[in-house]
Design a protein that fits this description.
ATP-binding, catalytic activity, acting on a protein, Phenylalanyl-tRNA Synthetase, Chain B, domain 3, tRNA binding, aminoacyl-trna synthetase, 7-stranded antiparallel beta sheet, 6 domains, magnesium ion binding
Amino acid sequence: MFVSYKWLQEYLPNLNQEAKALGEVISRTGIEVEDVFNYAEGIKKVVVGHVVTCEQHPNAEKLHKLTVNVGEEELAEIVCGAPNVAVGQAVIVALPGARLPGGIKIKKAKLRGEVSNGMICALQELGIDGKVVPKAFVEGIYVFTEKQTPGTDVLELLGLNDPILELGITPNRSDALSMRGVAYEVGAIIAEKPVLTVPEVTNVSTQQTADLLALNVENTVDTPYYSIAIAENVVIKESPLWLQGKLMKAGIRPHNNVVDITNYILLTYGQPLHAFDFDTLAGKDVSVRRAKADEAFTTLDSVERTLSEKNLVITSNDTPIAIAGIMGGLASEVTAKTTRVALETALFQPTVTRLSAKAVGIRSEASMRFEKGMDYFVAEQARQHALALLVELADATILAEPLTIDHREPFEVTLPLDVKRVNHVLGTTMTVTDVAEAFDRLQFETTHEGNVFMVNVPSRRPDISIEADLLEEVGRIYGYDNLPSTLPKGEATPGKLNYRQQKTREIRQLLEGNGFYQAITYGLETEAKAGYLALKETHLTKLAMPMSEEHSHLRTSLAAGLLDVVAYNVARRQSNVAFYEIARVFYGNETDRPTEEEHLAGAVTGLWESTPWQKIARPVDFFDVKGMIEAVVSTLGLVAPLRFEATKKAELHPGRAAAIYLGTEEVGYLGQLHPSEAARLDLPETYVFELNLQALLAADKVEKNYHEMPRFPASQRDIAVLVNNEVTNATLEDIIKENAGGLLKHIVLFDVFVNDKIGNDKKSMAYNLTYFDPSRTLTDEEVSASYDKIVVALEAIGAEIR
C-alpha cells in the first residue's frame, strides 16, 4: 500500500512530522513501513512548456525541431524525437542544468547539427513506472490536457513533491488498505482525530433507478450487500491532474474520469466499485449468481476465460458482465462513447472471492480487499462520494434511489477489559484515564465502571475479536518503547537431553564412528517407492494435492530413499559408501490419519576395510552389517535378547536376508539387495537394514548393576560341530545355552568352515565357551559335566562333534 503524505495531511491537517520519522513511528506501532521515498528527490529545473512551432529536423527523419515557451523572455529551441509531439501542446521540459532520476544532468547540446536547449520529457523520465503512466503517453511524451502556465514547476503541478510511505500490510490489518484507514491509524499515533467528510450528491434526477433496471441476488450469503446506481449524461474525459497524480503515486494507472473515480474511492475507503456502460447491458436487469460450468467470458484484459461453479458472476439477461469482486467484462467497459453508467457497490464473501480469483488466475486490487475482509458498513459512504464525483468531474445526472439488496449482519462486537489485566500483561502502571485516552485516540467507543471498560469495536476493525486484541491496541498506542523492561521470573532449570534424544545421539555417534554418513531424504515418494522394502504391509497414504507424482505418497520405509542416495554416489565414482538415516515412516489406513513411527535404516556398499596396514582390503559382507546392528542395539541395554532369523523378502537376496527380533517381536530386517534389484539401480553388492527404532527405545531396559572385579579365573572350552547347511547359528546357540547350565557366561562363534572335503551340504562351526562363577574357582569336573551335556544335545539333532 503506497500512502501519499500530502493526501494523509488532507485528513490530518496538523500532521507535520518529517516523513521518514513518521514511518519509523508507524513501524514501531505495528504496521511495517517498508520504504519512504519521494519522486521529486534529485529532480530540479523541470517546468511546463508550450510548443510554439514544430518542424521536421533537417538532418534526421525521426527528430523534430521545436521552439518552446518555458516562461522565459526567449523561446527555447529543443530537439525532440517523440512521435506524439505537436504544436500547441503543454509539455514537460527539463531545462539546461536540470537533474533527473538516476543522476542524469541535462546540458545544452547539438543533435544532428541543431542546438537543443533542454529536453521534452515523458513521465517515465521523472521516475514514474511505465505501468502506471496513462496508456496514451506510454510510448511518447506526456501532454497536459488542461491549460497550464509556461514555466510552472511540474513537480508541484503533478503532486510529485510528496513523500510516499510504502506499508507492508499484514493479512489481519485490512483496514489499512485504505487512506481513511491509514488516517485513523496515524491519527491514533499522533493523537489527532482525522477530518473525514463525504460530499453531498447534487444534480439528482426525479427519475427512479427502478424505472430503468431490476436487481436480483440469488445467494445473499455469497453477496450480503449489492447496490447499483445509474448516472446519465456522462461526459467521458481525462481526469484532472490532482486525481491522476494521486492514482499514479498509489501505483494505479489513470484511464478516464469514470474509471479513475472508482479507483480513487477504492483507495479512499477500501471499498471496490465497478462501472458498467449501461447501454451495453444485454437486458434491463442485473443479477448475481454462480457461473455455469464451462461458461465463457472475456474480461477487461481481453482474455477469454472459462468459468466454473466456483466463480460468482454479475449478469444482465443471464449474460455475464463481470466476475464478481475480481474484474469486469470487455463488452461492458466504459469507453469514450459511454453516456450512461451503472455503478456497482457490493460486498462479496471473502472465501468465495478468493476461490473465484484462484480459479481464473486473477488477483486484482479489488479481489485482494474482498479476500482480506473490510468494513462492511462503509459501502453507502463510498457510493455517495463516487456519485458526487461523477457529478463534479463527468457532468453526470444521478437517478434517484439506487437499487439495493442488503442482508448484512449487524457488526456488534463489545469486549470487556480490566485495567488491572492491562497492567498485569503489559507490566505497566496505567490508570483508568490512560486506558481511556488510548481508546479515545483509536476512536473506539467505551463505557466503564471502576476499572472495567466495555469497548465497542468499530466495524472498520474486524481483526479485533478477543481481549488479547484490545491489550495489543492499548500497548501499541501506549508505545512499545514505553513498556518497562523486566527479567523473567521463575526457577532456572538446567537443560538436558531426554532418554530418546540421548540414545539417538549415541547411536549417531556409533554409526558415524564406524564410517557411516548421515543422510536426510524426502518423506514423500512415488507410489512404487513408498512401499518399497517396508518393514510391514500397510495402506499407502496419498497426498490430496501433491506437488508432483514423484512426491505423491508418504513413505513407509527409509530404505528406498537411502538406496537412491547410494546409487547417486556410486554413479559419481564414490564406490565405498555407507549411509544411515533416522527419520519417521508413515503407516496409513483408510479411515484415519497415518501412524508415524521412527525408524533407523542403513545402506552399505563397497569395501568395509580399504587396504589397512598389513591387511588385505575386504568388501562388506552380511556379518559386518549384522555386527553393526548388534552394536547399535547393545547401546540400549535391553532385557529381551536380539535374534536374527532367515527370511525371504522379494527385494533381498534369498540366502542373505534375516528378520530381526527383539524377544518375540519383529523389529527389523537385514539383507543383501537382490542382484536383480541391484542391477536395476546400477549398484554393486549392497546391504541394507531397517530397524523400528521407536520400538527399541520403548523396550524394557536392563537395570544397571555394578559388580566388583572377579577374583576367580574363568574356564574356557572350544567345541566344533559338523552340521547340515540349513542349521543356523541361532539354533546351535540356543541348544548350547539350554543344556550348559548356569555356569556358562559367554558363547562366541569364531569359525565357519565350508569345503567339499566335508561335503557340499555340510558346514563346520566352532564356538568358544566361557564358564565362570564369581564366588569360587570352577573345577575341571564341573566344566566337563556341562560340556558333555552340550555334546549329547548337539548329537541328538544330528550334529557331529569334530
